[in-house]
Fold each of these.
Amino acid sequence: MSTWFEITQSLDGFVAGPDPSLEDPLGKRGEDLHEWAFALASWREPHGRDGGEAGPENDLMQESRSRAGAVVMGRSMFSGGSGPWEDDPRASGWWGDEPPFGVPVFVVTHHEREPLVLGATRFEFVTGGVEEAVERAVAAAGDRDVSIAGGASVGRQALAAGLVDELLIHTAPMLLGGGTRLFDGEVAGLEIAEALAGPRATHVRYRVTR
Amino acid sequence: MSTWFEITQSLDGFVAGPDPSLEDPLGKRGEDLHEWAFALASWREPHGRDGGEAGPENDLMQESRSRAGAVVMGRSMFSGGSGPWEDDPRASGWWGDEPPFGVPVFVVTHHEREPLVLGATRFEFVTGGVEEAVERAVAAAGDRDVSIAGGASVGRQALAAGLVDELLIHTAPMLLGGGTRLFDGEVAGLEIAEALAGPRATHVRYRVTR
């Protein structure tokens, strides 16, 4: 059993662009970060879309999907909100009626809430911080691994707490110039475990060594 | 004729670590960024060292070397200084009596100075900013290309001025946590032109598209 934190950044290290809003949660040009994924069959299928490309990048994404026995994410990745759930216009999440996970998802939040089942995905809301979320995800994942899916804040907290075995970083060919930084002061030694170059992004898997 | 800016960064986007000094110009752990290069024959040979690895990364570095007809660098990459030359303890540069360039090097500085010839390398000192330095380097390079060798500040200035055709970014597997950022607010569209993964770094060549 291992845990990995997987996210897409710009070459200048941002996971969202400047001026995010509820209408534009990834900020200016932030959506463009994910163009590489939108083209792939293994992204399109769980999102209810036809077609898409096969090939090594598709295999990489498919592997992430089949490997995850549970997912950890932050509140902003779940709904974009931060306050009490009754004030959150997206309290049912960004992910529609059929979220693409299909495994238990543990949402790190300051606000308690009963579990929410949407399609094949059960969301549980964890108020004990990223440590509790990862612990519960590990228990739920069985023989499979735990995906720490973001955003940057939850990933960084998990990394700082020593809870991340691997980073899988997708780098999109763009300089966003501002926005939400992926890393912010963390110090770590890494080893390159796998690297793959596609036409729209490069993908590197790192083992965290200290 | 084209220009490229080539530099090594950490995964979190730093080209030098925290607390640089004259004794430790790349800051804490900053030297480790370049471990991938120290192992290669094409780095060792111009630096007067024997041995080293062959292979695709070596070829990439060799290509950069043979492609450059002239080099542009900042004052801090030349000597680490910033004030008048007579006050600079490293006024003859970091590079020893036989600098590894062998082509004209244009140093961007605020302080005028006569050219300096060391071994096969002629350094010229340019007070008209990065624009003038690139212009003179292009004239000196003949049929060959111009290497914008760093540091980050000169590379960013050249990028902002529209003087960079390509970025060649080497990413070392480490999080430095602080130091000198490679990018700082620049916005650009990029296309992946080439990507290569080695055991100690990944290397991506980007075309600057806007």
Amino acid sequence: MEMHRLDPRTSVPEALRAVLSRIRPVERTELLAVPTAAGRVAAEDVTSRVPVPAFPCSHVDGYAVRTRDLKGVSATRPVNLRMVGAIHAGECFPRALAAGETVAIATGAPVPHGADAVEMFENVDATGRSIQFSLNVVPGENVDPAGGDLASGTRIVTQGTPLTPALIGLLSLAGYGQVRVYARPVVGVLSSGNELRPPGPEPLPYGKVFEANSAALSALIEPNGGVPKVLPPVRDVASVLERALRRALAASDMVVVSGGSSVGERDLLHTVLPRVGTVLFHGVKVRPGMPTIAAESGGKVILGMPGHPASCLSNALWLLVPAVRKLSHLPGDGTSRVRVRMARDTPLHGHGFSTVVPLRIQGETARSTFHGSHFITSLHPANGYAILPPAKRHLRQGESIYARRALFLGGA
Amino acid sequence: MEMHRLDPRTSVPEALRAVLSRIRPVERTELLAVPTAAGRVAAEDVTSRVPVPAFPCSHVDGYAVRTRDLKGVSATRPVNLRMVGAIHAGECFPRALAAGETVAIATGAPVPHGADAVEMFENVDATGRSIQFSLNVVPGENVDPAGGDLASGTRIVTQGTPLTPALIGLLSLAGYGQVRVYARPVVGVLSSGNELRPPGPEPLPYGKVFEANSAALSALIEPNGGVPKVLPPVRDVASVLERALRRALAASDMVVVSGGSSVGERDLLHTVLPRVGTVLFHGVKVRPGMPTIAAESGGKVILGMPGHPASCLSNALWLLVPAVRKLSHLPGDGTSRVRVRMARDTPLHGHGFSTVVPLRIQGETARSTFHGSHFITSLHPANGYAILPPAKRHLRQGESIYARRALFLGGA
């Protein structure tokens, strides 16, 4: 058995930069019904088709008036106007309001031509059709002018903007039933290793392991904008891996491989990747996750992750997630940066490399959930993580650090 | 036109409690392929089918040894063992290791019977089949014992746990290809109002508005665990609304109606809801969003939201989202609480009620995006919000408050 030592030369920021600089966000677009487009990214600028509101609109229940009819009005000098109708939302008054006239108007209904304000119903005395006003009313009072929220032709969405629930509402209000968004990038997910067996009720032969990385990676790809495409696991044979990789590349916008990323005899990625593309780096100065390799082929990035599920997932957090997000036109790494205090002393195990520490963040306190880099149980209680620099040997209890809180890890 | 004043008596916490106490999380379950179950909630406890690792496993590339063969070894007293084979991942050595023997072993491969440690390949001198050891090796070194990460039969998922990417990986490792999760609750979405027109290229008649609430509410329901079921808008006719509500209730686990929630002549919810169920409250001491009504019918909650898109969406953040999440077995309100400083002086407009302030949170700073309760453009730059108590009249520049940051609003 040939054995080699992997001597990584690439730091975490260098690895991230190398990968992100090769990622080209997908250019394919699709037309979606607006209510289903939340979380997707606009592929074009959108301007409002109509002003919002589309007409001068009452924002109270009351009486539409011509304010000049109410000049000098006061409690001691009330003015009576004649009610000539009522306007509910969705209706419109068929003519201009004439001198001495008022109309009852509901919230959301169009203020009739001629009228320039609405008095709230609580402030008048109504006796049949005679409406008595005793408070001053200024032009524009309780009226949202046409286009006051949004003028027609205003740009409401810029190409590249993720569509939030409020933007979905705004697009609808502005008259759009459909919106053009970027297609979700397809991320091929390939696991390699003779030891892998599909999880299921079949007994596990001695020496084999249930294949977990494709499921865990899919679960990270999906909430970060990608469509995971899980491919059948491949055996540790260079020609087989090469063929599978080429097929995966043809069918995806990016490929992530787990297993075979180190330098052992059956670690084939460093042999196969140069045949398929250009290797960007092999080995990252980070623990866990050091034996990581990346390549680029025909404008597509291939990430080779360590086969151990804990290292694979740890790497995916800081390397795969930002890559998938960039491919998807989504910003950042999907986390929010929060300042936290460490709940207890936490030794780091970087041994001169950066350390990725999985964290359980609660309020402004965090505790490491790490209890061994070979333990996937180190990761599942975490709702965030921190990357500590190589020089950092441990975190003291009460020490304040920046952590990355990730809803996609399940932490609310 | 009949006009009334709504005099709300219910505070924000009371309204939330009244709704949440009536929500019964869905009991329906479904069996899903594990890789597609991320974000869903486990409907049963799951225990590991196998120990993880399933066998004593090397976590380095090196040589498996019987440590008693290396007693007293040192640089000056090296020991030579005979290499009798090699074990790659997925293979197993066919017999127990005998005295004086060693086998080459790859990371992830099973340590053969008889052997009790693995020496890293960097620490030996290999000459053909003769392997020279010169460092002390302790029992267990570089070996993950069977079940060291997870003993067989360990509970890995508890009923009610949301499935994170790490748990998806753990379920797979533990031998599960499928997992039973709670069904996603169906949330009926109904808009009411004669003024509503479906968004689209058709010109908007004067006095009408494009219907936006069903799209915006769907966009909030979906990332919080629910399946929005948008129903056709209904006209302001009590019998029509009642029929539509009953149909919506029959087809959903909860119903949200927008429009008609106040006390105007065409605000029909307060008339119709008592026929369909029990009204929980009508009017909440909050701005925006005061004219909100809630009812319960046959164990299902109905929320009636104001028709104005900005008020409707604002209410949905603190009332609908937690309700949908509870229905979905998801905890909390989908936000993370962060301490922020206000970037500038911000007057509040609660006028004696609580105020919901939409916030753009960046790092530890927040600014209000509110510029008028009738403006949906007040909301779309927000990636979080805060609810300020009635007594609070304004926020000073630099003042520190707790804000709720919401990834579902698009803020990373």
